[in-house]
Design goal:
The chain is 74% helix and 1% strand. With 552 residues, the chain is an all-alpha fold. Helix 1 crosses helix 14, helix 5 crosses helix 7 and helix 8 packs across helix 9.
Length: 552
């Protein structure tokens, strides 16, 4: 029986507080582009879905699946193999190769594509040398593989993305117990058996996670596949929307991409759930790297040197050659403006992204409410969504809001202000913020989790409010993590191409769009300075990442 004197639960839980409201607003802001794409796909002005299904969509989808699968396999093989060698063995050059294998992350895949075509195309040095040596006068005199093809796209993108697998797999191998490998060795297991039966099964979740990221980034790629003439779902968005003028059809293609990405995430998480491993409660013996025999050691050096050379040294060398031999291109009109534009939009996006992420994570922790806590992981979906999808999702609602605001101002003042939101860089910065919000959120959440609860409690007991505690206690302790998040978002924004192409104002160039525009005109020497600047910016982030993982 219920007690008639039982107290009614207080209504405090139902009262909104500023931190909960703020966190919910940030989550809604990040989710708007994805929801806009879904809404537009199901409510198109002209429904061309039957036409897409009967014409181009099967080709787009088939090519995308082939690209994803090929890149995933290549990245998994290279990343896992090199991680095993670096984590488990000593061989010549291991020390510098352990961080050099991360360096392909500094170069966007589309830069590698431009370098490969420049080197191997008909007018490149390889075919020119062959014609000179053999006395051939035209392409009809000899057979040479087609450079602008699906296999070349898989090779270039895979070499650019394998470090995602390498980084996670190396950490997983290094954290395993050395005792297990010693037992396997005592039972007669050779190097291959220890890798296949002990090391790889324990590292499988990490390998699966890295491979899934590489495959998602392959779906996001536009510059490489567009340059190689490979028609994927991402290029289909550009074709249907910009060439065909049908935003609804582009949104329907974008939804197919979102389904693919959701499937990848689901498969990766299911793989981790099916195979779980726990470490022993007591301290485990770390892995002791074994010295390889002289011949085997040099084979391992070569195996690690090849992906570094093909993924970083070769494209960087080609761009540096063009940039340093044609120095007049550094003074070409528009380059300095592209650098300034890139710093402006990437810097603004980094500050906005990390600031909003920090506010949201701190607000969720302060409020302690269920709904904001459940929404927080969902806000990271933007990092999995390709830039072309986010570009579509940002531009459509912002354009509608822009027109309403302009009409209202015109009705009140009689002055037409034009496009306020989509006519400037606001849409581009917003897209970057949504795209890379997961980086800021992850950094803020991890940094806040490392702060002892006693410190903010002490500040609160001394009269500090939530905002004062954040400024006086949390931010000083989180300075390193916040700085790293700012740098990572900045670098990723510098390299982002699909969203930038869709959302940049007329006549507004960034380094990424300048490289793409010049390379599309077959003017690689003019694209080289901008590509080299992008590489140097990315290299700073990679070196800091390597330094942070140097202890592994």
């Amino acid at each position: 029986m219920s007690d008639g004197n039982a107290q009614v639960p207080p209504l405090r839980w139902y009262r909104p507080d500023p931190w909960s409201v703020g966190a919910l607003l940030v989550a809604a802001l990040v989710m708007v582009p994805i929801l806009a794409v879904v809404w537009l796909a199901f409510n198109p002005t002209d429904n061309i879905w039957p036409h897409l299904m009967s014409t181009v969509l099967p080709r787009y989808l088939g090519n995308t699946l082939v690209l994803m699968t090929g890149v995933g396999i290549l990245a998994a093989v290279i990343g896992t193999g090199t991680a095993w060698l670096v984590a488990m063995h000593e061989f010549p050059g291991r020390g510098w190769l352990s961080w050099a294998l991360l360096m392909p992350l500094a170069i966007p895949a589309y830069v590698g594509a431009y370098a490969l075509v420049d080197f191997l195309d008909y007018a490149g040095p390889v075919q020119t040398a062959l014609r000179g040596a053999m006395g051939w006068t035209s392409a009809a005199d000899y057979a040479f593989p087609d450079i602008r093809s699906m296999p070349a796209a898989i090779l270039v993108i895979g070499l650019s993305l394998y470090p995602y697998v390498y980084l996670l797999a190396r950490a997983a191998f290094s954290e395993q117990s050395g005792a297990g490998f010693e037992v396997a060795r005592a039972l007669g297991a050779g190097p291959w058996a220890r890798f296949l039966r002990v090391g790889l099964p324990l590292a499988r979740p990490a390998v699966a996670a890295g491979t899934a990221v590489a495959m998602m980034e392959a779906v996001n790629d536009f510059g490489t596949v567009d340059f190689f003439g490979v028609q994927t779902l991402t290029t289909g968005i550009f074709s249907v929307w910009l060439s065909g003028g049908n935003a609804g059809g582009a949104a329907q293609i974008a939804c197919v991409i979102l389904v693919l990405i959701a499937g990848l995430v689901a498969i990766e998480r299911a793989s981790r759930r099916r195979r779980r491993f726990w470490q022993a409660a007591r301290a485990q013996r770390p892995v002791t790297r074994t010295a390889m025999a002289r011949k085997a050691g040099w084979v391992a050096t070569l195996a690690c040197l090849l992906p570094f050379t093909a993924g970083f040294a070769f494209p960087a060398g080609v761009m540096a050659w063009h940039a340093l031999t044609r120095t007049e291109n550094w003074l070409a009109p528009g380059l300095a403006e592209a650098v300034a534009n890139t710093v402006l939009v990437a810097g603004s996006a980094a500050l906005l992204t990390v600031g909003l992420a920090l506010f949201m994570v701190y607000g969720v922790r302060m409020a302690g409410r269920t709904v904001p806590r459940l929404l927080m992981p969902i806000t990271g979906v933007g990092y999995a969504a390709p830039g072309a999808v986010l570009g579509l999702g940002v531009l459509i609602p912002l354009a509608a809001l822009d027109n309403r605001v302009a009409d209202a101002i015109l009705a009140v003042t009689g002055h037409d202000p034009g496009l306020i939101l989509t006519g400037g860089i606001g849409a581009l910065v917003f897209a970057y913020t949504v795209r890379f919000f997961a980086i800021g959120q992850g950094a803020a959440d991890a940094a806040l989790g490392r702060i002892p609860p006693s410190l903010p409690l002490a500040a609160r007991s001394l009269g500090r409010g939530p905002g004062g505690t954040l400024r006086a206690v949390h931010l000083p302790l989180m300075r390193g993590s916040v700085a790293m998040a700012l740098l990572l978002v900045f670098v990723d924004a510098v390299k982002e191409l699909p969203a930038t192409l869709l959302l940049r104002p007329f006549g507004f160039d960034t380094l990424a769009t300048r490289v793409h525009d010049q390379a599309s005109l077959e003017r690689l020497e003019a694209a080289a300075p901008a590509a080299l600047v992008i590489t140097l910016v990315g290299l700073v982030a990679v070196l800091l990442l390597a330094r942070a993982n140097a202890a592994r």
